[in-house]
Design brief:
The complex is a heterodimer of chains A (486) and B (362).
Chain A lengths: L4 H10 L13 E11 L2 E9 L6 E9 L8 E8 L3 E7 L7 E10 L2 E11 L4 E6 L8 E7 L6 E4 L2 E2 L1 E6 L3 E5 L8 E2 L1 E5 L2 E4 L4 E2 L4 E4 L4 E2 L7 E5 L2 E5 L12 E4 L7 E2 L11 E2 L4 E3 L15 E5 L2 E5 L10 E5 L2 E5 L9 E5 L4 E5 L11 E5 L2 E5 L4 E6 L4 E7 L14 E5 L2 E5 L7 E5 L5 E4 L8 E9 L2 E8 L4 E8 L4
Antiparallel strand pairs in A: 1-2, 2-5, 3-4, 3-6, 6-7, 8-9, 9-13, 10-11, 10-15, 12-13, 14-17, 15-16, 18-42, 19-42, 20-21, 21-22, 22-23, 24-25, 25-26, 26-27, 28-29, 29-30, 30-31, 32-33, 33-34, 34-35, 36-37, 37-38, 38-39, 40-41, 41-42
Chain B lengths: L1 H13 L17 E8 L6 E6 L12 E2 L4 E6 L4 E6 L8 E3 L11 E7 L5 E4 L2 E2 L6 E11 L8 E11 L7 E6 L2 E6 L17 E6 L7 E4 L7 E10 L8 E10 L2 H14 L17 E3 L8 E17 L20 H5 L23
Parallel strand pairs in B: 1-19
Antiparallel strand pairs in B: 1-2, 2-3, 2-6, 4-5, 4-7, 5-6, 7-8, 7-9, 8-18, 10-11, 11-16, 12-15, 12-17, 13-14, 13-17, 17-19
Classes of the chains: A mainly beta (486), B mainly beta (362).
Chain lengths: 486, 362
């Protein structure tokens, strides 16, 4: 047994050895973790392990494309005496490449390296930009990844002015003037790489033409309007001197004047109406105790047909035709969220579930695919299914509202899968809303007289027609708007 | 005489000049505190930034919000999700993601901050691991001994039942959320001067379940086994369990690093001052200053898969509750305002609602 004692002793001694490499100077250097890699930037965490202070003249990290660290990028963090973590950051990497990194420390006795880690830098990518339509000189934000701080953004061949690059993923850029096309590809040039956006950028379109067919001596306020076939109708309400307008006028594209239609009912203001020919209710007078006008009408086959009145009074509310039925909603005389439905086949009114909020006649509304859309005073566009009383907030009108200044008096109409909304009181903005995606696109602003009130809007063969009653002239202007022209 | 001199000499030997020592204690800077829990539940996700204040026996400061910071979350695919500061004046220093953003299982995230001062911070990467789903929750009343041998603490323990997956390291954390309970008062009770207000003896109140334990767990020794684990404890203060308490909490899977942080935090919170306590420790989070790696940032950026849990605790299904319960001789709606005392709070507390929340379904 005694022969084994030396071996046992040796074994005991060996047990105190380990393979961990300790640098000369009494510390261990670790390249601990790749904290983050983004585009040309990488952040690495290192650690110096020691039981006491260390004398290091220089420390940092080396980044290289090869494992032998030839042509390495050095990130130097200076001298150091305390053990602990250190962080290195570089923004000098190439995109889409594999890199090797290791920590280093320079001591009096030599250069010490930590373990080697590797990572890949990402290719730059453009995910989206917002807004998708913008005027030249205004700013859009390009979202993506792997953007260097020196990135450039091109709109077709025109270079935009980069305002800033945030977090390597958002570029704010000023839109350059349009060169030729209104729809141009967007590309980001970052380092030696180019990334394209999937969808093109669009400059705003839309041309306005003032037609030489104005309605002389009449300026409408609190009126109704609708369209049947290719004929436009506008009338009732009051003029700017608070005289009731007892007539409804019609216009057929191709004609050169608006003609009276021989409306047989009561003059009224703030009636509720669909844009298809149902109307009724409203006031016959003025003031807080203004008498209610009970008659309701439907214009069909070239004549006005009286229809039954609902049990509730509707004035300054909303009207709409959904699935062939006339909806009367809200207003100021009864409960503001009340909904009643007129069935033209049966000639009767039915109760429908209330809306989730009150509505008044100055809120914009339109219908699309048997759903009702209302923009409330908070700019939220609600989608309603009147039969199920469901209401879903779909989007927010993009221009600001100023309470009692620019939150009323706007226009809204549907053409195909797009809604055209805007020109609220005292503002020129007009927007196109894609009803499939609920994305907004700016149209060219209205160029005409701003001191006017919108009276009616119609769509005919892809063109929009609208009437504006001027405040300081005794007539109503008639405009044509081509949404796609530029 | 010689004796006298020798006494004097001995006395002189023991004398010395005493120089007062003025200890200069460094007042620590108001460091940054990060509270960020990003989960797979629907957004918006929330990041709260504050400056910590000195802690002492008396009021010495408040945790000031860190406003005007740039906050972004990055994932390992290179995507960046920018957070925007709350516009609510009552919640400065809180930053929200887009409402449609939620973390994805398997992705790795870094939280990156740039303060108004220009200082930059980044978190160490946190990977979201899938959380094994809870099958069921049970609860029971428990009594715990306290330092007062005559009065024990009564509370309710909630136990989660779930299958731990085999061969995967799992780290669990249960995070209490603001919970709602039926708040019963006795405005008509005899002996009070209040006029009977029978309408308002039953309101709905919310609180964060107390005590604020940090409950975390790993499956190192129980890998692959079916788990029955106490995931929440709500102390009965004589008010909470008069009728129904709806406890809400998150069942989370966290990283090993987060688990260590939470475990140590719980240890520190559980110190009682006894000789068996673990020593006070300086717990490091996972935020790193890019300008000064030595700077200590408090708090933790946590990214986790989450399951929202809800249990209605009914008084009549508890074996016992705290007795006697606390009688409150108030119109229950006025409770918060009455608690405000002298009304020094410039914000008038709201009335407690008598109607239950829309999703109240005990």
């Amino acid at each position: 047994m005694k022969h084994f004692y030396p071996f046992i002793f040796l074994l005991y001694c060996f047990s105190f050895f380990s393979c961990e490499e300790e640098a000369e100077g009494g510390f261990t250097l670790l390249t601990e973790e790749i904290v983050n890699v983004n585009g040309t930037r990488a952040i690495i965490l290192g650690r110096i392990l020691a039981f006491q202070n260390v004398a290091i003249q220089e420390h940092g990290f080396q980044f290289a494309l090869t494992a032998d660290f030839s042509d390495a990028i050095d990130v130097k963090l200076g001298e150091r005496s305390r053990p602990g973590n250190f962080v290195g950051e570089t923004e000098l990497l190439l995109l889409g490449r594999e890199y090797f990194v290791r920590g280093f420390a320079q001591t009096e006795s030599g250069l010490i390296y930590g373990n080697v880690l590797s990572f890949f830098t990402l290719e730059p990518t453009v995910e989206k930009f917002f807004p998708a339509t913008q005027f030249a000189g205004e700013i859009i934000t390009v979202f993506g990844r792997g953007f260097e701080s020196t990135s450039e953004v091109f709109f077709g061949d025109a270079k935009g002015q980069v305002i800033d690059v945030a977090f390597g993923s958002q570029i704010r850029v000023r839109v350059p003037p349009r060169l030729a096309s209104v729809s141009v590809p967007v590309k980001v040039v970052t380092g030696a790489k180019v990334a394209f956006a999937e969808r093109p950028f669009k400059y705003p379109t839309g041309t306005y033409e003032l037609l030489d067919i104005r309605i002389d001596q009449i300026r409408f306020r609190n009126n109704i309007y609708f369209k049947q076939g290719s004929r436009f109708f506008v009338g009732l309400g009051i003029d700017f001197r608070s005289n009731f307008i007892p007539e409804i006028y019609s216009f057929t594209p191709g004609d050169n004047e608006w003609k009276p239609t021989g409306y047989p009912g009561e003059p009224k203001r703030k009636a509720i109406y669909s844009h298809t020919g149902f109307f009724g209710g409203g006031y016959k007078g003025f003031g807080t105790s203004a008498p209610y006008s009970e008659d309701f009408w439907k214009y069909e086959n070239g004549e006005y047909q009286s229809i039954a009145s609902p049990n509730f009074r509707f004035a300054d509310g909303l009207g709409s035709e959904v699935s062939g039925k006339f909806l009367a909603m809200g207003g100021l005389l009864e409960v503001g969220s009340l909904v009643r439905e007129f069935n033209p086949l049966l000639g009767n009114w039915n109760n429908l579930p209330n809306l989730p909020y009150d509505v008044t006649g100055d809120m914009l509304n339109f219908t699309y695919q048997n759903k009702l859309y209302i923009i409330d005073k908070e700019k939220i566009l609600w989608e309603h299914d009147p039969s199920t009383a469901s209401a879903v907030a779909k989007t927010v009108y993009p221009s600001p509202f100023i309470k009692t200044v620019s939150d009323f008096g706007g226009l809204a109409i549907v053409k195909g899968d797009k809604a055209y909304i805007g020109m609220y009181n005292s503002v020129r903005e007009f927007w196109e809303l894609d009803l499939k995606t609920f994305e907004w696109a700016a149209k060219n602003p209205f160029p005409g007289e701003i001191k006017a009130e919108n009276t009616a809007i119609f769509e005919h063969e892809g063109q929009l027609y609208f009437l504006r009653s001027l405040q300081f002239a005794d007539y109503t202007e008639f405009w044509r708007f081509d949404p796609d022209a530029f | 005489m010689g004796k006298f001199y020798s006494i004097i000499i001995v006395l002189l030997l023991f004398s010395s000049c005493i120089e007062p020592y003025n200890a200069e204690v460094d007042v620590p800077d108001r460091g940054l505190t990060v509270e960020a829990v990003i989960t797979t539940l629907p957004g918006p996700q929330e990041v709260k930034l504050t400056r910590n204040a000195p802690y002492g026996l008396s009021f010495v400061g408040i945790n000031r919000p860190e406003i005007l910071a740039k906050v972004a979350l990055r994932d390992d695919l290179g995507r960046t999700f920018v957070f925007t500061e709350s516009q609510d004046p009552n919640r400065p220093g809180v930053y929200f993601s887009d409402p449609d953003f939620s973390a994805e299982v398997g992705r790795t995230y870094n939280l990156e901050l740039e303060l108004f001062s220009g200082k930059r911070y980044i978190s160490r990467p946190e990977t979201v691991a899938e959380v094994p789903k809870v099958d069921s929750l049970t609860y029971k009343a428990v009594r715990t001994a306290t330092t007062n041998k005559y009065i024990g603490e009564v509370g309710v323990q909630v136990t989660a039942h779930f299958q731990d997956p085999e061969g995967i390291e799992n780290y669990y954390h249960w995070r209490p959320l603001k919970s709602t309970f039926v708040f019963i008062t006795e405005p008509d009770a005899e002996g009070t001067n209040n006029a009977p207000i029978s309408c308002c003896a039953r309101c709905f109140h919310t609180d964060i379940p107390q005590p604020a334990n940090v409950i975390t767990y790993d499956d190192k020794d129980v890998d692959g086994l079916y788990q029955r684990k106490v995931v929440a404890y709500v102390v009965d203060d004589g008010v909470r369990f008069k009728e129904t308490y709806r406890l809400d909490f998150l069942h989370l899977s966290v990283s090993q690093r987060a688990h260590s942080f939470l475990r140590l935090t719980n240890q520190q919170l559980s110190l009682t001052g006894s000789v068996f306590d673990p020593p006070p420790a300086n717990i490091r989070g996972n935020m790193i200053s890019l300008d000064d790696p030595e700077e200590q940032v408090l708090g933790y950026f946590l990214a986790a898969d989450a399951q929202f849990m809800r249990v209605y605790i009914h008084k009549d299904r508890l074996e016992f509750v705290k007795t006697p319960f606390s009688k409150i001789y108030l119109d229950c709606r006025q409770y918060l305002r009455a608690m405000d005392g002298l009304g020094r709070n410039p914000i008038i507390p709201p009335l407690l609602p008598v109607d239950p929340p829309d999703d109240w379904n005990p």
